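Backbone shape codes:
***
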Amino acid sequence: MDRATWEAVDQYFDSVLSLSDPIFESALAASRAAGLPEIQVAPNQGRLLQMLARMLGARRILEIGTLGGYSAIWLGRALPQGDAGVKMISLEYHPKHATVARANLERAGLTKVVEVRVGPALESLAAIAKEGAGPFDLVFIDADKENNPNYFDWSMKLTRPGSLIVVDNVVRRGAVADAASNDPEIRGTRALFNRVAAEPRVSATAIQTVGVKGYDGLALIRVVS
């Protein structure tokens, strides 16, 4: 099987399951026009995130890594509307990306429930903890991979038993299995798994994926105590 086959299957799923709509298409177009890297989740992955949030009955969501707001739209739509206690916070390092994301979220009608904060995520996470903004029911980590262990540590502080932490891009085209790698992204991802494996308060798994985003995967970490 080659990448062309993976992409064809993803495109089939997108079409037959109606995974896109004009809001998503405009968000992708705006991100592309602004020159943002096309590294957002695939539509079927966005639907998966949305389904997980809905199955959890999530009312508070934290996203680390906004980019153009594509995944934030998927997750924001999973939140019950019209409830004052509902909130999603998305963290973005680049002001330009945040500007694009906010415009996309406005078109999606989600500005009342999704807040984009700009700055180094570790600083924003410390501020969120100080504010007492948690606990969050779902955390989606999709930012710089070198800091994945730190993001996991903060996620544990900002969640509760029953919460779910999802980490994107953990397979890295299979390179995660290379213990000798000097790539900071691989080392950060392996350090994340070591941290998760040593944490008695969670139950975790990871899955490999192929599709329009190539060969990668997700980690799913359930906070159990």
Q: What stands out?
A: Strands lie at 60-64, 87-92, 114-118, 138-141, 164-168, 202-211, 214-223. The mean pLDDT is 97.
